[in-house]
Design a protein that fits this description.
The complex is a heterodimer of chains A (about 110) and B (about 110). Chain A has no helices and eleven strands. With about 110 residues, chain A is an all-beta fold.
């Protein structure tokens, strides 16, 4: 079993829909990153969080340390949100372990 | 603005040739990392360096080499011994303390 599991693996949504991507992990962590990777490969860091909730524009990230779970929400989704979303956890000792990613496609 | 520069974004090489990927940072972060991404898999650690002139193998170091002669630079050489070099390569840095990672934008290497 992978240390970091993301769900769903693939997600297709209609423009305007509310989207949730989930990340579950099995180890103790000091922080968690959400990354966005567009077609062509460039990586953009969206959030780093160790507790609670963060919001940036239409993106919201939450984490529940006790349940070892994080979610990334996209409100009012748009075709330009189409990308791969990657969860990465920072284990104690700073080792970074990545999920396999969620491929999101938003149709207009 | 401080950040990580990976160049080029796309790189093509012939099979059997060594190729060096560049990673430069002006963040003054001590630790630097190289990851590899294959389709459908999470990024995996190739090499990392926590201080100048020192580096350690990650989970998939075979066929790769690195150097850390100065704090700002951590180049990765993909050697001809790497059996499947075509992949996406990501460089990252870590600031000491609970500040999290900073990520480069990546280099997509295609070997033909």
């Amino acid at each position: 079993k992978n240390e970091v599991e993301q769900s769903p693996q693939n997600l297709t949504a209609q423009e305007g829909e509310f989207i949730t991507i989930n990340c579950s992990y099995s180890v103790g962590i000091s922080a968690l990153h959400w990354l966005q990777q567009h077609p062509g490969g460039g990586i953009v860091s969206l959030f780093m969080l160790s507790s609670g909730k963060k919001k940036h524009g239409r993106l919201i990230a939450t984490i529940n340390i006790q349940e070892k779970h994080s979610s990334l929400h996209i409100t009012a989704s748009h075709p330009r949100d189409s990308a791969v979303y990657i969860c990465a956890v920072m284990e104690y000792g700073n080792k970074l372990v990545f999920g396999a990613g969620t491929i999101l496609r938003v149709k207009s | 603005d401080g950040g990580i520069t990976q160049s080029p974004k796309y790189l093509f090489r012939k099979e059997g040739q060594n190729v060096t990927l560049s990673c430069e940072q002006n963040l003054n972060h001590d630790a630097m990392y190289w990851y590899r991404q294959d389709p459908g898999q999470g990024l995996r650690l190739i090499y990392y360096s926590q201080i100048v002139n020192d580096f350690q193998k990650g989970d998939i170091a075979e066929g790769y080499s690195v150097s850390r002669e100065k704090k700002e630079s951590f180049p990765l050489t993909v050697t001809s011994a790497q059996k499947n070099p075509t992949a996406f390569y990501l460089c990252a840095t870590l600031r000491t303390g609970n500040y999290g990672y900073t990520f480069g934008s990546g280099t997509r290497l295609t070997v033909v």
